[in-house]
């Protein structure tokens, strides 16, 4: 499964960088976004399925997934990027992720 914690991270310097550069990073990612890989991924999913966007950043992938009818849980460890995602209409959650094991149920 996936466990999330509200508290710190072992990778504080990385999160500090994203917090400090969140607006610039979000703008750059939006301008460079190629939706084709995500569209191919969505084609492999069951319609309306649940998706965890772990490390959602500014939320562009979560927004596309939600617009396509998927139930998305968007999570990022950077409060700055969570704020950017929320400003774009993505209800992102700010969590430090611990003990991630793929193939879990949400």
Structure, described:
The structure is a single chain. This protein has 106 residues and is α/β, with parallel strands linked by helices. It is 42% helix and 18% strand. The chain has 5 helices and 5 strands; from the N terminus they run βαααβαβαββ. The longest helix is centred in the N-terminal third of the chain and has 11 residues, at 22-32. The radius of gyration is 14 Å and the shape is globular. It starts with a strand and ends in an 8-residue tail after the last strand.
Describe the structure in brief:
This protein has 106 residues and is of the alpha/beta class. The chain has helices at residues 12-20, 22-32, 36-43, 60-67, 79-87; strands at residues 3-5, 50-54, 71-76, 93-94, 96-98.
Class from secondary-structure proportions: alpha/beta
Mean pLDDT reading: 85
Biggest pleated sheet = 3 strands, parallel
Question: What is the general shape?
Answer: globular
Number of E-state strands: 5
How much of the sequence lies in strands comes to: 15-25%
What percentage of residues falls in helices of 4 or more residues?
Answer: 40-55%
Strand order within the widest beta sheet: 2-3-4
- What is the straight-line distance between the termini? 7 Å
**Low-confidence runs of at least 5 consecutive residues:** 1-8
Please trace the helix and strand order, writing H or E for each element. EHHHEHEHEE
Number of helices in the DSSP assignment: 5
Gyration radius, in Å: 14 Å
